[in-house]
Amino acid sequence: MLNPALQKYAKAFARLKRGGTKYGAAPHKPILLLSLIELIEKGVVADNRVFADAQLVGTFKENWLLLVTTPHQEDFTQPFYYLQNERAEGQGYWFLQPVPGCQINAHIKSVNVLASVCQYGYLAADLWLLLNDAVSRNHLKQVLLNTYFAETKNNLLHAKQQGQGYLIEQTLDLLEEPQAKYKHISKYTEEDVFVRNGLFKRLVPRLYQQQCSFTGMSLGSIYRHSFVDACHIIPFSHSHNDKVTNGIALCPNMHRAFDRGLLSIDENYRILVSEHLTEDRNHPYALSALKGRKILLPQQQNHYPAKEALEWHREKLYKR
Description:
Blueprint: H1 4-13, E1 20-21, E2 24-25, H2 28-42, H3 54-67, H4 77-82, E3 87-88, E4 91-92, E5 94-98, H5 111-117, E6 118-123, H6 125-131, H7 134-148, H8 153-162, H9 166-174, H10 190-207, E7 229-232, H11 236-239, E8 247-250, H12 252-259, E9 263-265, E10 271-273, H13 307-316
Helix pairs in contact: 1-7, 2-3, 2-7, 3-10, 9-10
């Protein structure tokens, strides 16, 4: 017999309010709940704070592509807001915490705006406890799959077992691996760009072992914060190139100097320092001391900064 809390949420999950459309009831809320369950199971969501980040948006899209066969419009922002209206025995179980000074009083349709005004979402305490128990979590997952996706659930289960799906394909594409299938997509939705930008920010520092390519500095915290940035060589606004070969890992002050053309990289991966730089050259952290130093590079050569990107930076941004 199910414990009362699990029984309560199993019943609530099987009776989600879903907007009626000409294609049938909307699948957005169960997809979001399945995505939350997956990230908790993987340990990506480790405390009761769910961020509207690339991992969640990408997982939502991956699960949508695997489960939804109707022409409904995919939209992560819709259930992220409207799940607040759901009740289990009269009590809400999904809440949003705005960024201080912001309010979230309506559905925000832009994922970028949502991420900027919502600090995180969180679950009712008893549901959070249930989803951290493997047996209870699996039971609620099966309720969602059997109730809303009985005909397509095997697509999801097979893809997850094989390590296939949207997120891995986007990662392979950013890494320019030969097995990537989506190389020729030329038009991305706002959510695609959001996901790829988030993956870029995670992948580039990882390729440089979480170190600044110029200084070797590695700085993080026990809260999983990293202070090494993923820097575009050719600005994304100019190139729309988010491959890791258009990226380099830099600490914030190097990032600023690189973006402003005070630092660059030559064809032999050595640091260039602009003559326009003004500083105390005797200071132990003077940037001029970096001149001629070879940058730290990823382990695999196919992940090195692209020579043509570096040439563009020297020609268009670097102040000689």
